Amino acid sequence: MNYYNYFTEIEEHFVRRRGKHLLVSPMDWALIAAWREAGIPLQVALRGIDIAMDAFFARRQGGRVKVNSLFYCHDAVLEEYGRYCEAHVGESSASSHAAAGSAEGKNEPEAKEILDFLSARIDEIKTLSAKQYSGSGREAVSRALSRLEEVYADLEAGVRPDPETLERDLRIIDEFLISELRAAVAPEELLAWEKEAKKELKIYKKRLPKETYEKILDNFMQDKIRRTFNISELSLFRL
Q1: Separation in Å, CA 48 to CA 29, 54, 84, 108, 215
Q2: In the Cβ-directed half-sphere of 198, how many Cα atoms lie within 13 Å?
Q3: Is 202 helix (H, G, I), strand (E, B) or coil?
Q4: CB-CB neighbours of 32 under 10 Å
């Protein structure tokens, strides 16, 4: 499985360690996104999950209690990431980047895979642009579509940017589109989503750094917007 399956790898590993199938919640996906954006490597996250689950099963004494959220593993993942960072103190930045680039390069998605992914996202946005919005809303969707079609045309013509650059371009388009679509959601609905998110996160709020907590809230809101407008995230991590 390639480098861009960060979300799926973590989801499947957590469910496997849990020992029983579980639909990972949008809040858990928001947590994974926060880990990814914090730069936590996949293997570090998986080790943290193992440490947390090993500790859970060691304490559990034959009961039927299950871990129902990935948040249970958050502290262990952060601690493991701290150990990872300490172990890499003093490394040459250039050699570190070269090693990471080499590792990722071996697992980069194929050009056709990326083109198919972008084509599907373009179709979603075209469907979105056909819906009735205010003039500014239609214009914003059209601008996002135009930029994404440019990225697609470049790749189709054989231009091959490095994955980091391509991912950054897609994130810019995605953030712009989500920001514009948020404005099309009724304020009372946005408030209801925020209340739902805060309710789910209530028991974790004291354990999460403020920045992480706010990022998870934002990711949750973005996911709600995407579901409402039936569009997928513009990110190579969704391949």
Answers
A1: 16, 10, 11, 25, 20
A2: 7
A3: helix
A4: 24
d(CA 163, CA 101): 10
Q: How far apart are CA 42 and CA 48, in angstroms?
A: 10
Max distance between CA atoms of the chain, in angstroms, equals 61
Question: Do residues 239 and 113 touch, judged by C-beta distance below 8 A?
Answer: yes
d(CA 198, CA 213): 10
Q: Is residue 161's pLDDT more than 60?
A: yes
**Across 190-205, average pLDDT:** 89
Cα–Cα distance for residue pair 72/161, rounded to 1 Å: 38
* pTM reported for the whole predicted model: 0.65
Q: Return d(Cα 93, Cα 40) in angstroms, integer.
A: 17
Tokens 């990935």 locate to: 70
* Residues present in the chain in total: 239
Mean pLDDT of 160-186: 85
- Cα end-to-end span (Å), the chain: 11
Dist. CA 104–CA 108, nearest whole Å: 6
Query: What's the token pair of residue 204?
Result: 């974790």
Q: Which amino acid is at 112?
A: K
Cα dihedral value 122, 125, 131, 132, nearest 10: -130
Contact in structure between 163 and 108 (CB atoms under 8 Å) = yes
DSSP labels, 149-162: HHHHHHHHTT----
65-113 pLDDT tens trace: 678 889 999 999 999 999 888 877 655 444 444 444 444 444 567 888 8
Q: Report the distance separating Cα 174 and Cα 21, nearest Å.
A: 31
